[in-house]
Amino acid sequence: MASESEKSGGAEDLPVIVCGGGVIGCALAYFLTEKKKRVVIVEQERIAAAASGRAGGFLALDWCDSDEVGPLARASFRLHAELSEQLAKEGHDTLYRRVDTLALSIRGDAPLPEGAAKKGSLPAWLNRGVRGVSKLGTQETTAQVQPRLFTEALFDVASKRGASLRKGSVTGLLFEDSSSSSAKGEETEVAGVLVDGEPLRASQVVLAMGPWTCKAAEWLKGAGSFPRVTGQRYHSILMRPKEPITGHACFCNDEGKGEDFEIYPRSNNDVYVCGSPDFGPLPDHAGLLDACVEEERVALIKALSDGVSDALRECEVEERSCCWLPFVPDNIPMMGKVPGVRNLFASTGHGCWGILNGPASGLAMAELLVDGESKSLNLHPFSPSRFATTIK
Ligand SMILES: Cc1cc2nc3c(=O)[nH]c(=O)nc-3n(C[C@H](O)[C@H](O)[C@H](O)COP(=O)(O)OP(=O)(O)OC[C@H]3O[C@@H](n4cnc5c(N)ncnc54)[C@H](O)[C@@H]3O)c2cc1C
């Protein structure tokens, strides 16, 4: 809980308020507290309640090299390896490991001939339907982490260094009296947030609410400029085979059904499978995500994974889930100061790579907030100001 001084705003050293306890908010809190900053995370449900607790956790060194995200992804891939060791020292096993990654093309679900796996590079548990296999990544270039454990571990270490969690919904921004600043032509100044309508003062505010960051456009009440933040829904399931299967991450295309899906076996013997994007309105609150799960999507993902493996065919669905990925209009994460508003920052729009890119995003944003600029990453391509002239 926030202290009384934070509520009243009497303290000189006000905290940074991070809105949203997903991987982006928790990684930021981790690095801010490493820099001795006071941090309050305001989270409406629980840490890792949304996509950050429901994602695959696949990590790739060089899969974003074709656009501006490349340096961020490379830095973050390396940081994951370091963090897994540091978090382990704090007692957290985040199931981080390097993996081999395959692309599979699938047609039908007929059993493969005996010994098919031995002839090619196919693991034995992929014994149905596979018509083609190629290598997408090696243990040098691809890895995985359990996203919920990772996000919770980041928060736990941040909280040991003094970060606190304020349970509640951010419902608006707290503005300093703008009459004098607007008369002088200065930026509007944010002095904190409203949590369920109650003021909570801050030195700086960071919007990291994943797809729900869309609400900030309304909170700004015409001050500054903010792009449209949207969400894209995905479903996933979790299974536990009787016998452990190899840790190959598989990107599958079922040519017959016209569906893409991904299979991520984890080191604790869980197998996570997610399907293609589907459509549904973003619920108002992360606590409503479980109620948004559609059984037809779950059944489709189960049928797709049954089609490639007897080991998966024998499994029950242990967990079913859906969540929304956060996007901004150009699909490049948006990280930096919100133009036209002093003390207000955003870190969102990480799309399908938020678990990968969370650590380097958190480090770069912590440097920006504390030191005024990021030395670890050029944040310029990610600046919210790129939307300032086009979208209001
Ligand atoms: C099926 C699926 C698989 C994925 N697989 C991978 C993968 O393999 N690798 C990878 O790198 N990425 C993956 N991703 C993407 C990744 O999960 C996201 O990019 C990332 O989790 C986004 O994190 P976030 O912190 O921005 O948002 P979120 O995780 O959505 O967190 C936002 C938080 O803000 C809180 N919040 C919202 N509104 C408010 C409010 N008003 N007040 C207070 N709190 C609020 C929510 O409760 C939530 O906890 C996957 C995503 C999906 C959906």
TrEMBL record:
Kindly give the Pfam families that the UniProt entry links to this protein. Answer: DAO (PF01266)
Taking every annotated instance into account, which residue ranges of this chain make up the domain FAD dependent oxidoreductase?
A: 16-368
Q: Which InterPro entries match?
A: FAD-dep_OxRdtase, FAD/NAD-bd_sf
Which segments cross the bilayer?
A: 14-32
Q: Which UniProt keywords apply?
A: Membrane, Transmembrane, Transmembrane helix
Q: Name one GO cellular component term.
A: cytoplasm
Q: Which SUPFAM superfamilies match?
A: FAD/NAD(P)-binding domain (SSF51905)
- The name under which this protein is listed is FAD dependent oxidoreductase domain-containing protein
Q: Which organism is it from?
A: Chromera velia CCMP2878
